[in-house]
Amino acid sequence: MRADDILLSIEKLEVVYHNVSTAIQGVSLKVYENQIVALLGTNGAGKTTTLRAVSGFLGVDDAKITEGSIAFLGEEIHNKPPHLITKRGIVLVPEQDKIFDNLTVEENLQVCVPVSKGKVRKGDQYGLVFKYFPILEKVKGRIGGYLSGGERQMLSLSTALLCNPRLLLVDELSLGLAPFIVEELMGLLRVIRQEEGVTLLLVEQNAFAALEVADYGYVIENGRIVFDGDPERLKGHQDIREFYLGLGGQDSQRSYREVKQYRRTRRWYG
To answer: What single DSSP character describes residue 46?
Structure first.
């Protein structure tokens, strides 16, 4: 990968909540054009905070960036408001509050069509959405609150696509969904990347699912990046296999750091 192809660059990022609690510290990662990058970690590791820092939504949680930088296409964007970041082509699909539950599917899509596309015919507005998620056309009159988990996730991805993203941030796509739905959605993300030229940064606890589609992955724990590499390297690393992929024995319930320290101790004293 060339330096010119870097779309998103995060350098030594630190985020503090309520001026007291440090959520992430020293986080650095890069996302290249047309890549799918996975940010893996357990609940509370700092994954969502990282996405909120990139998308500008930290302020709603009384959090702020205290050190480090975030650059998109070479321009620093940290601490800028969400609407300006979205205009630059970064769109977030959040973990929660993905859609308007009291609106129909069609109304959700209408709300999220950018002003610049306001004169486009309705059929053209939805053509892209129904191409990838044809089920939404069948349920377009249904109230959002009555959608299944998979349909809600499809609708949230659709509203993001209507914002014409260059970089799509997806927070916990697999959460609460059946494995076959997760597999289908992950596969669609890969197709969307290929056909629409959208770069993706995925935050996931489901390491198996994410590494099936990712070009590169980072493991975050306790607010720090502890390991990174291509999917083959991550899948082949014994500590990652034991903790994040559940392929170990007694160590599979430990954290990455605990497993690593255990192995060092065993080498030293065993």
So the answer is: S
Spatial contact of 143 and 99, defined as CB atoms under 8 Å apart: no
Residue positions counted in the chain: 270
Residue 195 CA to residue 100 CA, distance in Å, equals 28
Which single residue is written with the structure tokens 């408001």?
81
Distance between CA 16 and CA 228 in Å, rounded? 24
Radius of gyration in angstroms for the set of CA atoms belonging to the chain, rounded to a whole number: 19
Which CATH superfamily, name and number, covers 3-99+165-236?
P-loop containing nucleotide triphosphate hydrolases (3.40.50.300)
Query: 119: buried, middle or exposed (CB in 10 Å: 19+, 13-18, 0-12)?
Result: exposed
CA dist 106 and 110 (Å) reads 6
pTM of the shown model = 0.86
Angle between helices 122-132 and 105-112 (to 10 degrees): 110
What does the alpha-carbon distance between residue 121 and residue 9 come to, in Å, rounded to a whole number?
37
| Helix/strand/coil for 254 | coil
Q: Is 35 helix (H, G, I), strand (E, B) or coil?
A: coil
Name the segment(s) of the chain with CATH classification 3.40.50.300: 3-99+165-236
Could you list the mean pLDDT of each consecutive 10-residue stretch along the chain, which spans 270 residues? 86 95 96 97 93 92 94 94 94 90 94 55 71 95 96 95 95 93 96 96 93 96 95 89 70 50 42
| CA separation for the pair 208, 40 (Å, rounded) | 10
How many whole angstroms separate alpha carbon 184 and alpha carbon 145? 22
Question: Which DSSP string do the residues of 60-129 spell out, in sequence order?
Answer: GGTEEEEEEEEEETTEE-TT--HHHHHHTTEEEE-SS--S-TTSBHHHHHHHHS-GGGTTS-HHHHHHHH
